[in-house]
Design goal:
With 254 residues, the chain is α/β, with parallel strands linked by helices. The protein contains nine helices and eleven strands. The strands form two sheets. Strands 1, 4, 5, 6, 7, 8, 9, 10 and 11 form a nine-stranded mixed β-sheet that branches. α2 crosses α8. It is elongated.
């Protein structure tokens, strides 16, 4: 009887380890969502991913890199996953996109006294210059926003800090604007004392997700991550993990 029990235990343990796998993720310095602390990846997206990896018995390694390098590695299939990503046709070409984890908002920002209040009519952006960080979902959102708007000019910059500093310095003109993630922009405005900038209207509410490489991760594994993220959300664990950062979770979806 004892030998039979040990044999059954060996089967169970073997099945558990068969599910375990090494998963390499890349992300970017993107506070308050992701950043490096003492050389290690940190932030709310990291906390949620590690909680999911623990439930899935995945051994997840996360490296913080410049976004262009991280995105290139992920698109070439050199790693299993990447974040933060926003669900879009462009991202789905390369990745299984997970359910959203953190809710974000794309806002237009203007110089104080500009007077613009965007309320959904993109034609008010005519003849203006608008800066955004890219390549990114922000840049894709800006491209869609200004489609068909006459004489609008877009400037894609290497990071959000450059966008906001150029806007504050008048580099986009007196009527210039910037499109940025609200939480990211507010953090940068405080750090750089850019008191001359103000929100000018909400463009889009969205969610940040994880992307899993279609080259290395099959559909069943992507669905397992989606199920685990849903369970973390429904149980309230995701909200607990995000609470110290003051960031809202996305609605729970499969």
């Amino acid at each position: 009887m004892k030998a039979q029990t040990l044999a059954m235990l060996a089967v169970v343990v073997g099945a558990h380890h068969a599910q375990a796998r090494d998963m390499r993720f890349v992300t970017e310095p993107f506070p308050p969502y992701t950043y490096a602390t003492d050389g290690r990846a940190a932030g709310p997206m990291v906390d949620v991913l590690l909680a999911a990896c623990a439930r899935l018995a995945w051994r997840c390694d996360i490296e913080v890199l410049p976004w262009r390098r991280a995105l290139g590695m992920a698109q070439r299939g050199e790693v299993e996953g990447i974040f933060t990503v926003v669900d879009s046709p462009e991202r789905r070409q390369y990745f299984h996109v997970s359910p959203p984890v953190i809710e974000g908002r794309y806002m237009l920002f203007a110089r104080a006294g500009n007077g613009l209040q965007y309320t959904g009519d993109a034609q008010v952006l005519a003849a203006r210059t608008i800066g955004a960080y890219g390549p990114s979902a922000t840049a894709l959102t800006l491209e869609a926003l200004v489609e068909g708007v006459p004489r609008v000019r877009t400037e894609i910059e290497p990071d959000n800090r450059t966008v906001l500093r150029k806007l504050a310095a008048g580099r986009y003109g007196e009527d210039g604007l910037a499109l940025a993630n609200e939480a990211v922009a507010q953090l940068l405005l405080r750090e750089d004392n850019l008191n001359s900038l103000q929100p000018a209207g909400l463009v889009k509410v969205f969610g940040y997700s994880f992307g899993l490489s279609r080259q290395h991760v099959d559909l069943a594994q992507a669905q397992a991550l989606a199920k685990t993220l849903y369970e973390l959300c429904r149980s309230g664990r995701t909200a607990e993990l995000l609470k110290p950062y003051g960031l809202p979770p996305s609605p729970c979806v499969r």
